[in-house]
Amino acid sequence: NSAASSERKGCPFASSSSGDAMAARATAVAEVLNPRNMMPNLPQTPHESQQSPLSKDRVTSNIPKAEEVGNWVYPSPQQFYHALLRKNKEAEADAMEAVVHVHNVTNDRTWEKILDWEQLHAHRCPTPSLLRFVGRSTDLSWGAWWSKRFSYRGEPFDRHDWFVDRCGASVVRYVIDYYDDPKAKDEHMQITIDARPAFDSLGSTVDRLRRPLWQVKRVWAALFGGHMAP
After folding, report:
1. Looking at residue 142, what is its pLDDT?
2. Residue 81: which of 66, 62, 64, 100 has the closest Cα?
3. Which residues contact 36 (CB under 8 A, 6 or more apart)?
4. Which pTM value belongs to this model?
5. Dihedral, CA atoms, 127, 128, 129, 133, nearest 10 degrees?
6. Residue 125 pLDDT
7. Strand order in the sheet with 171-180
């Protein structure tokens, strides 16, 4: 699937904690960057290298936006094309609609997995929201390190850290690894999402301990794939 393959090159809308972040800071003088994703306001006009027109329609996500009314809005295919070129990534205009669809579905599914964890705190915060996110594709998490050595999936093709606002009471960091997975339940995308709270606090550590079955399913899926994926 070419769209899924393009998505596996990493999300262009998540700044990296290393090289990409340094590049973003270097261009900050010429661009006004959004601190929530370290990206500029991307144009809806065709790029000079573009061979065919692209849609300017934007889709609203299922992810509530912290400190604002409404949900996060995904980039249009035209904006996504600009974002890929901005980060020197391969951009094929003919495939952009499908690439954006995979990107959007993957992010909505990521939020669903985060909500599974947030159910542990639903009595105090029934409506968590996403404050910001950052891409860390070159930084292996401990889970990714383990997967690289012991799982058929190898290392993830991308990593994000998402910062979730718990109804203004606290902000919790989640680590999300995205794996190219030939045994994934969705044969059309073949992407597995491993989302969990980071070991940043005692509370997050306790949350991990409160879901032992999730850990069992996680290890099973990494070793054997199949329907036990968390």
Report:
1. 94
2. 100
3. 131, 132, 133
4. 0.86
5. -170
6. 98
7. 129-135, 158-165, 171-180, 191-197
**pLDDT given at position 4:** 53
Amino acid (one-letter) located at 67: E
Strand partners, 73: 60
Q: Which two tokens stand for residue 142?
A: 């401990």
Question: Nearest-CA neighbor of 99 among 79, 77, 82?
Answer: 77
Sign of CA dihedral 37, 38, 41, 45: negative
Instruction: Give the Cα separation of 84 and 228 in Å (integer).
Output: 34
Tell me the average pLDDT of the chain.
87
| Percent of the chain topping pLDDT 70 | 84
Between CA 211 and CA 176 the distance in angstroms is 17
Q: Are residues 114 and 211 in contact, defined by beta-carbon separation less than 8 angstroms?
A: no
Question: CA–CA separation, 61 vs 16, rounded Å?
Answer: 22
Q: For residue 194, what are its two tokens?
A: 């491993």
Residue-wise pLDDT for 105-130, tens only, equals 999 999 999 999 999 999 999 999 99
User: What sign does the dihedral 36-37-39-41 (CA atoms) show?
Assistant: negative
